[in-house]
Amino acid sequence: MDLDLRKLRYFIAVAEELHFGRAAERLLIAQPVLSRQVMALEREIGVGLLDRTSRRVALTPAGERLADEGRGLLASATTAVRRAHESARGLERLVVGFAPGLRVAPAVAAIGEAAPELDVALIELVWYEGADAVRDGRADIAVVREPFGDGLISVPLGAEPKLAVLATHHRLAKKRRLRLRDLEGEGPFEADRRCAGIEGTVELAASGRGVAMLPRSVATLYARPGLVLRPIVDREPLGIHLVRMSGAHDRVRELFEIAAETLETARSA
Hints:
Layout: H1 5-17, H2 20-27, H3 31-45, E1 50-52, E2 57-59, H4 61-89, E3 93-98, H5 105-114, E4 119-124, H6 132-135, E5 141-145, E6 152-160, E7 162-167, H7 197-206, E8 212-215, H8 216-221, E9 227-231, E10 238-245, H9 250-268
Parallel strand pairs: 3-4, 3-5
Antiparallel strand pairs: 1-2, 5-10, 6-10, 7-8, 7-9
Helix pairs in contact: 1-2, 1-3, 1-4, 5-9
């Protein structure tokens, strides 16, 4: 089955706005046209994507899944066109992604020296993305934590532990080191979309409602009065890697090697 990317883009606008009028304004098309296109998409794929009433628009489970995965499809299509142009005329821009708490400045500086003709841009990855930005083409290379899945070329850059983040009045705050068994019954949680990402996770920990577990570099960024950070001695560290797609542009491959060497040197210095 062929998926019409234009209809998909229209549907995602409705999924994000949950309102046909606002989505039509955003897309600069008439509302009846938008409604017909979304219904045509539902017929083409054979499932209902939206529950419509006179008062509200809501996503069905199928609609939630398509909206979530469809954003990546649209990004990939846009990137495929960009990379085709790059192959025809040569690479003009390199996008470097990095996960929260990780540093890429030495690599960016080295790339700038090696390829002064390139526009080097940075993209801060959302904490739950992993290497998705590399897979869908928003970033050419990225520094990410494990796990990041298969199908990527990667260079290990070390590892970092996860720390427990908890309120100073929490019963475990007096312990200098924690084990996973200490957290049983305490509702330990990690950054989750339901609690507004890292900030929400830290706020829940500060309220005393549980124990957050965050990578050390992230936990130290959010350290503040009222919170304590404790090592979890029996939890495996998270590996940190520089990654790229296996079929990357030749120039990207060259700059990837420069970035890897620079970051490895910076880590050992």
